[in-house]
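Researcher: Here's a chain I'd like modeled. Treat it as a single chain, no partners, no ligands.
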Amino acid sequence: MRQKVSLELKVEALGLLKTGLSISSVSKQLKIPSGVLQTWSQIYAKEGVKGLAAYPKNICSGEIKDRILWSYRKKRVPLHLLSARYSVPYSSVCRCISTYRRQGKAGLDGVVIDIMDVMRSGDTLEEALSKAELKHKLKVAMNELEYLRAENALLKKVKALMEAEERKNKRSRRPSSH
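Model: Modeled as a single isolated chain. Structure tokens:
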């Protein structure tokens, strides 16, 4: 099973690469396969920190699920056309619609309602759905917090690199005292 790597580690690795270290040396230093570093570098170049936060990508991300649902519900676009429009496998589009019908928006984002837990808690199904929505909102907020923390860490490292470069340039511009 693939282990999730923190966004901070990805940002640190890319920061080391930007300082001029080779992929193999960063790979050895952080114990990350060089192919993974190359992938992160390409994703960062194409999509920035947001792309890194989403890697490894789900086949059908939350934003695309929202667009699929909107197109299906409001415009009545057929599933095969949604599959082609959003470059998502037909089976994923079907699963997205089916999950939405059974569990609502919270189900699409991974908040699962276990009927046995509902029965043990004494909550009604409506209360359980309400709790699931709250769990979903908490999950979304925590993901946003992780993204903002990583972005903040990246900005601090970029600032430090820029200040170091500025100090280096100032030293090289000083006239020699000889």
